[in-house]
Amino acid sequence: MEKKIEELIHRLKQSRSLSEIKDACACSGGDTEVIHQLTEVLGSDEMSTRWKAAVALTDMGSPAVDDLIQCLSDRKSCVRSSAAWVLGNIGDNRAVQFLLRNMEDPSADVRKETAEALGKLRVRTPNILMRNGTPLA
Which residue of 14, 25, 50, 131 lies most exposed, with the fewest beta carbons within 10 A? Predict the structure, then answer.
C-alpha cells in the first residue's frame, strides 16, 4: 500500500489540471482503493499535493464520505482541516454530527474549515443544523 501511495503522490505532484489529477487517481485502482490512498495523501507535507488529493476526493463525492469522516479524528491537523473542507464541498449530511465535534478542535485552521463546511451544508439543507426545531447555530 505504501508503494502505491508514493506512486500516487508522485503522479499528483506532476498533475497540473483536474483531468491530470483524475488520470493519476484512475491509475491507482478502483474507487475504494483510490479513496483510501487519497485520504493518506491528505497527510502529505506538501500543501499542493494535499490540495490535489482534496480536489480529487471532492470529485469522488459521497463514496469518500466515510473515509473522510475517519480523517476528522486524525492526529495531524492538516488532515482534519482538509477532510472538513472536502466534506463541506461534497455536501453529504452524514458528516454533520462529526463536523460538529470538530468545532472544539485545538487547531484554529480545523475550526475554520469545519465552520465553513457546516455553513455549506446548512445552505444546501437549511434544517440540517436544527435540534428539536431549534437552530444549533
Answer: 131
